[in-house]
Amino acid sequence: MTDAPLVSMRNITKRFGGVTALSDVNLDAYPGEVLAIVGDNGAGKSTLIKILTGVYQPTEGTMSIDGKPLVLNSHSDAIAEGIDAVYQTLALADHLDPAANMFLGNELTTKFAGITVLDNKRMRAETERVLMERLGVRLKSLDAATESLSGGQRQAVAIARAVYHEGLRVLVMDEPTAALGPQETARTLNLIETLKEQGLAVILISHSLDDVFQVSDRVHVQRRGRCAGVVKTADSTQQEVLGMIVGAEEAA
Amino acid sequence: MTTASTNIEPKTLQDRMEPYLAIIGPMVMILAILLFMGVAEPARYFRLSNLNLILLDAALYMPMAMAMTFVITQRGIDLSIGSIAALSGILMAFLIKQYAFPAWVALPIAIMLGATMGLINGLVITKFKVPDLIGTLAMDLVYRGLALVIAKGLVLARFPDLITDVGRGKIPGFIPIPVVIGIATMIGGYWLLKKTYFGRYTIAIGSSPESSEMTGIAVNRHKIYAYVLMGAAAALAGVMLTGKLNAIQATSAPYFNLHVIAAVVVGGTSLFGGRASMLGSFAGVLLLSMMINALVTLRIEFFWQSVASGVVIVSSVALYTWMQKKDRDGARGLFAGLTTPEGQKLLRLSAVVIGVLIALLAVGALLAGDPVPSG
């Protein structure tokens, strides 16, 4: 963990018509760090990461990456800046094989008699390489449709799609373990550790405080559109974070 | 680096069969027809001239089955192809007969007109957000109506050699030209499906429109591509039909849509999207042509063809749905479902419907007088 944040969000406010979804939120993410964002439903977690990934534009506030100002007008702007997200639904096409999914919308091609055609062979090789080298995952078969893979393997394919982009620096993971069993959850948390060791800034959105306390370095707590505080995971307890989420201290 | 390597399990029989599932169904049915006809009418069914007839019939449907494979894989449907074929054929016929266009210009014009009609279908579905079923059904009425308006009751006949060659010509010592065209379109379709953006995105869109949208695929544009291909293929079929009969009229090709959809679905392409089998569509086309030819050979009334096609569609869709269901536990035999409260209620409903029908028939029979000839 270095001193300077990789990505900073300063005084972010987002209003939808009369509804204020976020007000005056600050967020810093460091390379080689897992930052967890927790909070109740409607606390503004999703809005916050959608602003970071360029899906929404903030009403007020600024962002910077590497100290340079960051203005995102679309999700593809964010990808170009090295910020990508893996959504809960994973955005996979279940009937296609893992390689086709990894390159979906971004296929590798080759020329055949002057015509641009898909290079299925190279996409397979690259998928195998990225899964093994970056994520340490080996699939039993790259031929099978993605629907036949386990939840954790599907997650790996979706992550591989994000990390294949060489410039990737910030990876947002939205509820990656929500639909997984205990074993698959452990594998996914391992993947997060792996990405962190590779120097990515990982932003993890989760409802599971167990998962959060297992992998995260810091926890950013959202409550009713505001940041209720940021704690170092090592110095805190699940009880304390839970209290911040529900606002127990305010009430007391 | 942490490792999350997965244990390698031996493939089950079902895993290994999965890729071939699509082709097994129609193959088994083709074998069944061959066996049955081998016993019932071997002499007439297996004559070379009859096999030629089967191929000629199948060739007409191959381009459309190829295109329909893409449309259905994208969770779409196109019910307007019969009318597109007829209208394109009529327009080509008029260009040739009335305006003396050379055939080699009129033919590609017909195909481009078909593509235009497909484009209109695609725009209606994606831009006006009319559901494909209603949209193409309505456009079917439009195209058929236009064909009737233009051709009135006329039968346009006697076309230049190029057109009849496309419809029924034969490469000397080889197979008929339409068969070459049909197989070439199927091979082209296979290539499109496996090797191009269009094929890849077709499966992705059918598999999950939301995921496709999220990964930046232009979903609507690729849907329109499929309908344009479908329109062009239907027009090609219209030209082939015109050539085959050396005549065309506004009411030609009435049953193209269901026949082609049946062939594609029998071939294992899923109506629920995402699962495409070009080889299966090819086998499906052959199967339907063999079946219809068998019915003719057995001298079964023409109208039974419609019954047979419908039964084949329903049974194959039901079969594929059942085969693709991953967990079939909880079933204690074929009739176990009848003992559940839900099953009991359905049984009672069936009993009431059939009972009332029988009662009404009995009343009618009791009160019946002498038959009155109609008209």
Automatic annotation (TrEMBL), chain A:
PROSITE patterns: ABC_TRANSPORTER_1, ABC_TRANSPORTER_2
PANTHER family reported in the protein's UniProt record: CARBOHYDRATE TRANSPORT ATP-BINDING PROTEIN MG119-RELATED (PTHR43790), GALACTOFURANOSE TRANSPORTER ATP-BINDING PROTEIN YTFR (PTHR43790:SF9)
Keyword flag Repeat: yes
Keyword entries, A-Z: ATP-binding, Nucleotide-binding, Repeat, Sugar transport, Transport
A GO term for molecular function: ATP binding
Entry-linked InterPro entries: AAA+_ATPase, ABC_carbohydrate_import_ATPase, ABC_transporter-like_ATP-bd, ABC_transporter-like_CS, P-loop_NTPase
Protein name: ABC transporter ATP-binding protein
Domain ABC transporter: 7-249
Domain of life, source organism: Bacteria
Organism from which the protein derives: Actibacterium mucosum KCTC 23349
UniProt entry tagged with the keyword Repeat: yes
TrEMBL record, chain B:
TM segment ranges: 20-39, 51-72, 79-96, 102-120, 141-159, 171-193, 224-243, 255-272, 279-296, 302-322, 346-368
Principal location class: membrane
Pfam families: BPD_transp_2
GO CC terms in record: plasma membrane
Membrane topology value: Multi-pass membrane protein
GO molecular function, one term: transmembrane transporter activity
Keyword entries, A-Z: Cell membrane, Membrane, Transmembrane, Transmembrane helix
Subcellular location: Cell membrane
PANTHER family per record: ABC TRANSPORTER PERMEASE PROTEIN YPHD-RELATED-RELATED (PTHR32196), RIBOSE IMPORT PERMEASE PROTEIN RBSC (PTHR32196:SF72)
Protein name: Ribose ABC transporter permease
